[in-house]
Amino acid sequence: MQVERELAGLQVTTQAWRAGGERIGLVPTMGALHAGHLALVEAARAAADRVIVSIFVNPLQFGPQEDLDRYPRDEAGDLEKLRRAGCDLVWLPGPAVMYPPGDATRIEPSGPAEGWEGAARPGHFRGVATVCTKLFMMTRADVAVFGEKDWQQLQVIRRVVADLHLPLRILPLPTVRDTDGLALSSRNQRLSPGERGEAARLPRALQALAGALAGGAAPQAALAREQEALTAAGFGVDYLALVVPDSLQPWPAGASGEARLIVAAQLGSVRLLDNMPVMISSRSEA
Ligand code: PAF
Predict the structure, then answer these.
(1) Structure pTM?
(2) Is 37 a catalytic residue?
(3) How far away, in angstroms, is 210 Cα from ligand 1 center?
(4) Do domains 2-173 and 186-280 have the same CATH topology?
(5) What are 18-40's pLDDT values in tens digits?
Protein backbone atom coordinates (compact mmCIF):
# COMPACT_ATOMS: atom_id res chain seq x y z
CA MET A 1 0.00 0.00 0.00
CA GLN A 2 1.39 3.35 -1.08
CA VAL A 3 1.27 6.35 1.30
CA GLU A 4 1.55 9.81 -0.27
CA ARG A 5 1.81 13.17 1.49
CA GLU A 6 2.79 15.35 -1.50
CA LEU A 7 0.65 16.11 -4.55
CA ALA A 8 3.41 15.25 -7.06
CA GLY A 9 3.66 11.65 -5.75
CA LEU A 10 -0.11 11.23 -5.81
CA GLN A 11 -0.34 12.52 -9.38
CA VAL A 12 2.42 10.25 -10.76
CA THR A 13 0.48 7.24 -9.53
CA THR A 14 -3.02 8.36 -10.56
CA GLN A 15 -1.75 9.33 -14.04
CA ALA A 16 -0.20 5.87 -14.47
CA TRP A 17 -3.45 4.21 -13.35
CA ARG A 18 -5.54 6.30 -15.70
CA ALA A 19 -3.14 5.70 -18.59
CA GLY A 20 -3.63 1.98 -17.99
CA GLY A 21 -7.41 2.42 -18.18
CA GLU A 22 -7.94 1.77 -14.46
CA ARG A 23 -10.88 3.40 -12.69
CA ILE A 24 -10.19 5.15 -9.38
CA GLY A 25 -12.43 4.93 -6.31
CA LEU A 26 -12.02 7.48 -3.50
CA VAL A 27 -13.07 7.22 0.14
CA PRO A 28 -12.67 10.64 1.80
CA THR A 29 -12.17 10.37 5.59
CA MET A 30 -10.87 12.30 8.57
CA GLY A 31 -9.22 9.16 9.99
CA ALA A 32 -9.94 7.39 13.32
CA LEU A 33 -11.25 4.65 11.06
CA HIS A 34 -13.93 2.19 12.15
CA ALA A 35 -15.94 -0.61 10.52
CA GLY A 36 -18.16 1.98 8.77
CA HIS A 37 -15.17 3.40 6.92
CA LEU A 38 -13.94 -0.09 6.03
CA ALA A 39 -17.35 -0.84 4.49
CA LEU A 40 -16.84 2.26 2.29
CA VAL A 41 -13.42 0.91 1.25
CA GLU A 42 -14.98 -2.43 0.33
CA ALA A 43 -17.66 -0.68 -1.75
CA ALA A 44 -14.96 1.37 -3.50
CA ARG A 45 -13.04 -1.81 -4.29
CA ALA A 46 -16.15 -3.29 -5.88
CA ALA A 47 -16.87 -0.11 -7.88
CA ALA A 48 -13.35 0.70 -9.16
CA ASP A 49 -9.99 -0.89 -10.06
CA ARG A 50 -7.93 1.18 -7.60
CA VAL A 51 -8.86 2.56 -4.20
CA ILE A 52 -7.56 5.77 -2.63
CA VAL A 53 -8.47 6.60 0.96
CA SER A 54 -7.80 10.19 2.00
CA ILE A 55 -7.15 11.06 5.64
CA PHE A 56 -7.32 14.76 6.41
CA VAL A 57 -8.83 16.40 9.48
CA ASN A 58 -10.15 19.44 7.66
CA PRO A 59 -9.85 22.59 9.80
CA LEU A 60 -12.14 24.50 7.43
CA GLN A 61 -15.21 22.48 8.44
CA PHE A 62 -14.78 23.05 12.20
CA GLY A 63 -16.12 26.19 13.88
CA PRO A 64 -13.99 28.10 16.43
CA GLN A 65 -15.86 26.50 19.38
CA GLU A 66 -15.82 22.99 17.90
CA ASP A 67 -13.71 19.90 18.57
CA LEU A 68 -10.88 20.20 15.99
CA ASP A 69 -8.18 19.76 18.66
CA ARG A 70 -10.02 16.89 20.35
CA TYR A 71 -10.93 15.10 17.10
CA PRO A 72 -9.57 11.52 17.45
CA ARG A 73 -6.38 10.79 15.48
CA ASP A 74 -4.64 7.43 15.01
CA GLU A 75 -2.48 7.46 11.88
CA ALA A 76 -0.56 4.22 12.59
CA GLY A 77 -3.76 2.31 13.46
CA ASP A 78 -5.54 3.70 10.38
CA LEU A 79 -2.72 2.66 8.04
CA GLU A 80 -2.74 -0.87 9.44
CA LYS A 81 -6.52 -1.17 8.97
CA LEU A 82 -6.29 0.15 5.41
CA ARG A 83 -3.46 -2.24 4.55
CA ARG A 84 -5.64 -5.15 5.66
CA ALA A 85 -8.67 -3.75 3.81
CA GLY A 86 -6.86 -3.79 0.45
CA CYS A 87 -6.53 -0.03 -0.05
CA ASP A 88 -4.05 0.83 -2.85
CA LEU A 89 -3.04 4.34 -1.81
CA VAL A 90 -3.52 6.51 1.28
CA TRP A 91 -3.58 10.23 0.55
CA LEU A 92 -2.34 12.02 3.68
CA PRO A 93 -1.89 15.71 2.83
CA GLY A 94 -0.92 18.22 5.50
CA PRO A 95 -2.86 21.50 5.87
CA ALA A 96 -0.28 23.38 3.73
CA VAL A 97 -0.77 20.92 0.85
CA MET A 98 -4.55 21.20 1.04
CA TYR A 99 -4.59 24.98 1.64
CA PRO A 100 -1.31 26.33 0.23
CA PRO A 101 -0.16 29.88 1.07
CA GLY A 102 -2.44 32.38 -0.64
CA ASP A 103 -5.33 29.91 -0.84
CA ALA A 104 -8.49 32.01 -1.22
CA THR A 105 -11.15 29.94 -3.01
CA ARG A 106 -14.18 28.36 -1.37
CA ILE A 107 -17.17 26.34 -2.56
CA GLU A 108 -20.28 27.89 -0.99
CA PRO A 109 -23.18 25.43 -1.15
CA SER A 110 -26.77 26.46 -0.46
CA GLY A 111 -29.97 24.43 -1.04
CA PRO A 112 -29.57 21.21 1.00
CA ALA A 113 -26.75 22.88 3.00
CA GLU A 114 -29.22 25.30 4.59
CA GLY A 115 -30.77 24.51 7.96
CA TRP A 116 -30.12 21.60 10.35
CA GLU A 117 -26.32 21.04 10.51
CA GLY A 118 -25.88 24.11 8.30
CA ALA A 119 -27.67 26.25 10.89
CA ALA A 120 -26.01 24.63 13.92
CA ARG A 121 -22.51 24.78 12.42
CA PRO A 122 -22.15 27.95 10.30
CA GLY A 123 -19.52 27.45 7.60
CA HIS A 124 -19.39 23.68 8.12
CA PHE A 125 -20.68 22.74 4.67
CA ARG A 126 -18.50 25.39 3.00
CA GLY A 127 -15.56 23.52 4.54
CA VAL A 128 -16.86 20.10 3.53
CA ALA A 129 -17.72 21.15 -0.03
CA THR A 130 -14.38 22.91 -0.51
CA VAL A 131 -12.24 20.04 0.76
CA CYS A 132 -14.22 17.37 -1.10
CA THR A 133 -13.98 19.30 -4.38
CA LYS A 134 -10.21 19.58 -3.87
CA LEU A 135 -9.97 15.84 -3.06
CA PHE A 136 -11.99 14.93 -6.17
CA MET A 137 -9.69 17.05 -8.38
CA MET A 138 -6.45 15.96 -6.71
CA THR A 139 -7.20 12.23 -6.94
CA ARG A 140 -9.09 12.40 -10.29
CA ALA A 141 -11.48 9.83 -8.88
CA ASP A 142 -14.15 8.23 -11.06
CA VAL A 143 -16.29 7.38 -8.07
CA ALA A 144 -16.33 8.60 -4.46
CA VAL A 145 -18.05 6.65 -1.69
CA PHE A 146 -19.91 8.39 1.16
CA GLY A 147 -21.83 6.92 4.10
CA GLU A 148 -25.51 7.76 4.57
CA LYS A 149 -24.78 8.38 8.27
CA ASP A 150 -24.11 12.06 7.44
CA TRP A 151 -27.24 12.34 5.33
CA GLN A 152 -27.18 16.11 4.86
CA GLN A 153 -23.48 16.02 3.93
CA LEU A 154 -24.24 13.38 1.28
CA GLN A 155 -26.98 15.56 -0.26
CA VAL A 156 -24.68 18.62 -0.24
CA ILE A 157 -21.91 16.67 -2.01
CA ARG A 158 -24.34 15.33 -4.61
CA ARG A 159 -25.55 18.90 -5.27
CA VAL A 160 -21.99 20.26 -5.58
CA VAL A 161 -20.98 17.48 -8.01
CA ALA A 162 -24.08 18.07 -10.14
CA ASP A 163 -23.84 21.88 -10.09
CA LEU A 164 -20.10 22.01 -10.90
CA HIS A 165 -20.38 19.19 -13.48
CA LEU A 166 -17.60 17.31 -11.70
CA PRO A 167 -16.71 14.16 -13.66
CA LEU A 168 -17.31 11.56 -10.98
CA ARG A 169 -20.11 9.47 -9.51
CA ILE A 170 -21.13 9.65 -5.86
CA LEU A 171 -21.88 6.23 -4.42
CA PRO A 172 -23.86 6.29 -1.15
CA LEU A 173 -23.63 3.43 1.35
CA PRO A 174 -26.16 2.61 4.12
CA THR A 175 -25.12 3.48 7.67
CA VAL A 176 -23.13 0.79 9.48
CA ARG A 177 -24.49 0.26 13.01
CA ASP A 178 -23.25 -1.34 16.19
CA THR A 179 -25.11 -4.39 17.52
CA ASP A 180 -27.42 -2.14 19.59
CA GLY A 181 -28.23 0.02 16.55
CA LEU A 182 -25.99 3.05 17.27
CA ALA A 183 -24.57 4.46 14.02
CA LEU A 184 -20.78 4.02 13.95
CA SER A 185 -18.92 7.33 14.22
CA SER A 186 -15.35 8.27 15.13
CA ARG A 187 -16.75 10.60 17.81
CA ASN A 188 -18.51 7.71 19.64
CA GLN A 189 -15.19 6.89 21.33
CA ARG A 190 -15.60 10.09 23.37
CA LEU A 191 -18.83 8.79 25.01
CA SER A 192 -18.43 7.56 28.61
CA PRO A 193 -19.51 3.91 29.16
CA GLY A 194 -22.80 5.16 30.67
CA GLU A 195 -23.45 7.53 27.75
CA ARG A 196 -22.54 4.80 25.27
CA GLY A 197 -25.26 2.61 26.82
CA GLU A 198 -27.82 5.42 26.56
CA ALA A 199 -26.84 6.44 23.02
CA ALA A 200 -28.73 3.56 21.41
CA ARG A 201 -31.99 5.29 22.42
CA LEU A 202 -31.46 7.54 19.42
CA PRO A 203 -31.76 4.90 16.65
CA ARG A 204 -34.54 3.21 18.65
CA ALA A 205 -36.48 6.49 18.65
CA LEU A 206 -36.03 6.80 14.86
CA GLN A 207 -37.15 3.21 14.36
CA ALA A 208 -40.23 3.72 16.53
CA LEU A 209 -41.06 6.90 14.63
CA ALA A 210 -40.56 5.25 11.22
CA GLY A 211 -42.96 2.48 12.26
CA ALA A 212 -45.57 4.89 13.62
CA LEU A 213 -45.42 7.19 10.58
CA ALA A 214 -45.59 4.30 8.12
CA GLY A 215 -48.68 3.17 10.03
CA GLY A 216 -50.38 6.54 9.52
CA ALA A 217 -49.53 8.47 12.74
CA ALA A 218 -49.65 12.27 12.54
CA PRO A 219 -46.00 13.39 11.97
CA GLN A 220 -45.90 16.51 14.18
CA ALA A 221 -47.42 14.81 17.24
CA ALA A 222 -45.24 11.69 16.83
CA LEU A 223 -42.06 13.79 16.45
CA ALA A 224 -42.93 15.88 19.52
CA ARG A 225 -43.55 12.72 21.62
CA GLU A 226 -40.20 11.14 20.70
CA GLN A 227 -38.33 14.42 21.20
CA GLU A 228 -39.84 14.72 24.68
CA ALA A 229 -38.83 11.14 25.53
CA LEU A 230 -35.24 11.74 24.35
CA THR A 231 -35.02 14.98 26.33
CA ALA A 232 -36.30 13.19 29.45
CA ALA A 233 -33.57 10.56 28.93
CA GLY A 234 -30.85 13.26 29.00
CA PHE A 235 -30.34 14.05 25.29
CA GLY A 236 -30.01 17.70 24.26
CA VAL A 237 -32.07 17.39 21.10
CA ASP A 238 -31.09 20.05 18.54
CA TYR A 239 -33.58 18.80 15.95
CA LEU A 240 -35.70 15.77 15.21
CA ALA A 241 -37.43 16.32 11.90
CA LEU A 242 -39.10 14.76 8.91
CA VAL A 243 -37.67 16.08 5.63
CA VAL A 244 -37.70 15.66 1.87
CA PRO A 245 -34.72 13.30 1.34
CA ASP A 246 -32.67 15.23 -1.23
CA SER A 247 -33.54 18.89 -0.54
CA LEU A 248 -33.74 18.58 3.28
CA GLN A 249 -36.83 20.82 3.16
CA PRO A 250 -39.39 20.13 5.90
CA TRP A 251 -41.81 17.42 4.77
CA PRO A 252 -44.99 19.11 3.46
CA ALA A 253 -48.09 18.50 5.62
CA GLY A 254 -50.38 15.88 4.09
CA ALA A 255 -47.79 14.61 1.56
CA SER A 256 -47.11 10.89 1.13
CA GLY A 257 -44.10 8.97 -0.20
CA GLU A 258 -40.49 8.41 0.86
CA ALA A 259 -39.25 10.87 3.48
CA ARG A 260 -36.22 10.98 5.78
CA LEU A 261 -36.12 11.28 9.54
CA ILE A 262 -33.08 13.25 10.71
CA VAL A 263 -31.86 13.87 14.24
CA ALA A 264 -29.01 15.66 16.01
CA ALA A 265 -28.66 15.41 19.77
CA GLN A 266 -25.97 16.20 22.30
CA LEU A 267 -25.04 13.44 24.75
CA GLY A 268 -22.27 14.47 27.13
CA SER A 269 -19.61 16.12 24.96
CA VAL A 270 -20.67 14.36 21.76
CA ARG A 271 -23.06 15.59 19.08
CA LEU A 272 -24.76 12.46 17.74
CA LEU A 273 -26.29 12.44 14.24
CA ASP A 274 -28.55 9.82 12.75
CA ASN A 275 -31.22 9.42 10.08
CA MET A 276 -33.58 6.81 8.66
CA PRO A 277 -35.80 6.41 5.62
CA VAL A 278 -39.54 6.36 6.24
CA MET A 279 -42.51 5.75 3.95
CA ILE A 280 -45.29 8.20 4.75
CA SER A 281 -48.59 6.56 4.10
CA SER A 282 -51.31 8.41 2.20
CA ARG A 283 -53.68 7.77 5.13
CA SER A 284 -51.42 9.61 7.61
CA GLU A 285 -53.06 12.46 9.55
CA ALA A 286 -51.55 15.90 8.88
O1 PAF B 1 -17.44 12.82 6.68
C2 PAF B 1 -16.25 13.16 6.87
O3 PAF B 1 -15.46 12.42 7.45
C4 PAF B 1 -15.78 14.51 6.36
O5 PAF B 1 -16.78 15.46 6.44
C6 PAF B 1 -15.19 14.45 4.94
C7 PAF B 1 -16.24 14.02 3.92
C8 PAF B 1 -14.02 13.48 4.88
C9 PAF B 1 -14.68 15.83 4.51
O10 PAF B 1 -13.68 16.28 5.36
Answers:
(1) 0.97
(2) yes
(3) 27
(4) no
(5) 999 999 999 999 999 999 999 99
